[in-house]
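Entry:
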Amino acid sequence: MRSFKILFAFCSALALSACSTVAPPYAPAMDNVQTLKNTGDAKARVGAFTADKPADASLSMRGTSLDSPYAKSYAAYIAEALKQELSLANKLAPDADIEISGILLKNDFDASGFSTGTAKIDVRFIVKKAGQVRYDQVKTASHEWPSSFVGAIALPRAMQEYTVVVQKLLADLYQDKQFSNSLQ
């Protein structure tokens, strides 16, 4: 019976290794939305988010490619996450004179560990009001989660954890007093 389980796990991992899959859509963090609500009445729009080429590539999970669900771009993933949380906080306005844009600098994702997975994201956020730069800083988020030797367990878990590291990144941004002041 044990041999059968090991063979099944190996075959499952092998089958998944040749695949390309899409990361789950971003799930807004309600704590982030509340933090945004507490920043005042100003509205903002989300501008262009770009990436250094290596940072925007598909992420690798034990040989499986993990693509962004937003135009296959992780810079677009960050922009979409920001849009969703601004919208839920009633702060998103396409015609606002405050614009938030950014550059994805680093997007490291390691789901190869048999006991632990890790992710790290660096994004340079820029806030402009009427064309004037009011905020320009790099924010970093790291995240670690328990993994498994069995690919059929580890891979779905790793896919879900990408959202968590983005939530942490945005939480760090929203809690920055200079960022909240730039929205006024």
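The longest helix spans residues 151-175.
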